Amino acid sequence: MSVETTIIAPPEVKKEGLFSKKNRKVLRDPLDDNNPITVQVLGICSALAVTVQVKPALIMALGVIFVTSFSNLIIALIRDGIPNRIRMIVQLVVVALLVTIVDQLLKAYMYDISKKLSVFVGLIITNCIVMGRLEAFAMAQRPWPSFLDGIGNGLGYGIILVVVAVFRELLGSGSLLGYKIVPQWAYDMGYVNNGLMVLPPAALFLIGIYIWWQRSRNRKLINAS
Amino acid sequence: MEGLLNLLIKSIFVENVIFAFFLGMCSYLAVSKKVKTAFGLGLAVIFVMILTTPLNYLILTYMLKKGALGWVHPSLATVDLTFLGFILFISTIAGAVQLVEMVVEKFTPTLYNALGIFLPLITVNCSILGTSLFMQEREYDFAETAVFSVGAGIGFFLAIVLLAAIRERLRYSKIPEPLQGLGIAMIITGLMGMAFLSFSGIQL
After folding, report:
1. What's the DSSP call for residue A16?
2. Which residue from A46, A96, A213 is facing B86, i.e. has the nearest CB?
3. Would you call A92 and B187 a contact, using CB atoms and an 8 Å cutoff?
4. Contacts of residue B194 in chain A, CB cutoff 8 Å?
């Protein structure tokens, strides 16, 4: 496992392979050591509300991966043409455009999921991960590493989302992806679903515990935020 | 009138933007280390919320909804532009924040010094855009929108000041090292959320 927590190196001029060591690091770091949610503290806003069940969480994660990677790519492509003073608005418009595409696709092909995610698809726009990565990475890097960075951060976000959703759905409703996991005889013997898991605070407890576990495993992250 | 009062109470306590929907968690966790700064951010959020949500309501009703453009020309009465909602809402918010920043700086420098650094942050505060989107999804009318935006703003203010007060006290307690900072803040927010859940028992 890599030991670095900072990923931003000055852009290099010399040519390098598509999956050079540096690029692989850019892709892999956000999954754990530099996870956007638990280490960078970005994008918690819209993350927790969609984790009651696994399926919406997966769809949401895919949407975020799409938006972070392509917004990073687009901004990195046009970064030299953006005047510094209005860069926020330019970034927001690019992100809003991509989110609109995701939203319309969901409405067209997965209407029930789109209803379940309600306003949280729109809130990808103000998801701090997207803006944070644009500011911290895409504005200063070339398109391909930026694209990888977007995918990496989207995946890091998705992992947390799915982990939390698995716990909440399994303990809260006794199922995964809608299939019953806890057998009927367990209920007959007195097993009861944990009602707290379906309520909003459970997501916060689970993330808190995840952070605890992650930081006691990797003590360098203590005081990272 | 009674309905509006109920909506206000509901949006502050029962459906608090932080505890029920996790909106604006980023700045909520980042700026809640001191009560004073939390107070400033809370005020700025209320301010921007009250300004932008009714504005977005007007945009939605008179420009975007199906048939809303009928007042421009009858032939436009069938146009449905709701898919442009995200882009226009976020532009309104970004623009309003910029405007508010300039006006406040010009006329009340003391308030500007208190809110200064927080104003630009608010553009990407999910609770602002979230309130606008909830307004659209729940189809509030203008009065309800205004009341809802006030309630959501006060709810955020209340939540962030409470958490800041608790975190100031936490500095004197012994917490396992890996749990310090972010981890304990999450768990405390969860506990506060459970406390706020009890408001849902209120019959309105």
Report:
1. -
2. A96
3. no
4. 196, 199, 201
| CB-closest option in A48, A119, A204 to B133 | A119
Confidence at A150, pLDDT banded by 50, 70, 90: confident
Beta strands in chain B (DSSP E): none
Token pair 């707290």 in the structure block, residue: A196
CA-to-CA distance for B88 and B66, rounded, in angstroms?
16
Distance of alpha carbon B99 from alpha carbon B105, whole angstroms? 10
Please, which residues have CB within 8 angstroms of residue A105's CB and are 6 or more apart in sequence? none
Residue of B nearest to A126 (CA): B124
Tell me the chain A residues in contact with residue B193 when contact means C-beta distances shorter than 8 Å.
199-201, 204
Dihedral sign for Cα B79, B85, B89, B95, please: negative
pLDDT confidence band for B154 (50 / 70 / 90):
very high
Asked if residue B163 has pLDDT above 50, the reply is yes
Evaluated on CA atoms A2, A8, A10, A11, the torsion sign reads positive
Give the CA radius of gyration of chain A.
19
A141 vs A137: CA distance, rounded Å? 6
Whether the predicted interface score ipTM is above 0.90: no
Judge: A118–B137 Cβ closer than 8 Å, yes or no: yes
A199, B178 in Cβ contact below 8 A? no
Name the residue facing A205 among B137, B181, B190 (closest C-beta).
B190
Q: pLDDT of B79-138, one tens digit each?
A: 777 778 888 888 888 888 887 778 777 887 877 776 666 677 777 778 888 888 888 888
CA-closest candidate to residue A218, choices A1, A14, A63: A1
3-state helix, strand, coil split of chain A in percent (to 5) is: 70, 0, 30
What pLDDT score was predicted for residue B16? 85
Of B86, B177, B184, the CB nearest to A222: B177
Measured between beta carbons, the chain A residues lying within 8 angstroms of B85 are 122
